[in-house]
Sequence to fold (244 residues):
Amino acid sequence: MSKAPFRLDGRRALITGASKGIGFAAAQLMRELGAEVTIAARTGAEVQAAAESIGAAWFAADVSTSEGVQAALDAAGQVDILVSNAGGPPPSLPSEVTEAAWEQGYQTNFLSTVRLAGGALPGMRERGWGRIIAVTSMTVGHPAINLPVSNALRAAVTNHLRTLSLEVGADGVTCNTVAPGYTATQRLKDLHSGPRQAAALAGSIPLKRFGEPREVGAAIAFLASDEAAYITGQELLVDGGYSI
Ligand SMILES: NC(=O)c1ccc[n+]([C@@H]2O[C@H](COP(=O)([O-])OP(=O)(O)OC[C@H]3O[C@@H](n4cnc5c(N)ncnc54)[C@H](OP(=O)(O)O)[C@@H]3O)[C@@H](O)[C@H]2O)c1
Fold:
């Protein structure tokens, strides 16, 4: 039984990029808090297994395409809570990003949120209630030298949702971003291999450890609740104090 001071009963959520990591943790917590949840990711077997483990619906979709976004929205049906998330761009030096990598990042980490929000918004406005939350990164405010595509496009997502929040607040729809710091997921392992590198990195964080996916999921779930109704156009950093 959850001890959370808020619930999500009766809400329907679509969470993309949610077969593992932060997206999955958010989905799991939202299920515990009473929401009906649909999760999406590209690898069908993984997203199915993840969904079944938490009693969620699932759909295999690639949110880097408009067809994939539409399919995920169709599978979810009514979307009261949208969590726009996907995998992060591959590392590279800023001067070495190819046109193809910019294009891929633009589709996956920017247009996906624009399209998902655009598709979910009419129903939210009609019902007078909605939550749009995008997972970005602490690199919005603290660019990492090896993540140039992420640095640029997460900033674009942040300002898109800040701008959208100005338009849709009157309809009961809030738009926010959750910006994780170093969080113990597959993505972190892929980017920072080796125990010594990981230990040095963890030591540079004020809380002296990586975040748990569930700790980021909790921030997402809170922003999705009725209790967060007066929070919009904001970036919520969940980074163990790293950005200080
Ligand atoms: N972990 C960190 O330390 C950290 C820090 C800052 C920001 N972030 C950002 O937070 C987000 C989530 O990170 P994470 O660590 O949870 O990543 P993760 O463990 O790699 O999980 C990514 C999830 O997204 C899915 N996905 C990837 N590309 C997709 C696409 N095009 N369409 C639909 N689903 C897709 C993956 O499944 P499939 O591959 O099967 O599609 C998987 O379910 C990423 O954007 C990451 O850059 C992470």
Observations:
- The chain has a mean pLDDT of 96.
- The beta strands are 12-16, 36-41, 57-60, 81-84, 130-135, 173-180, 235-238.
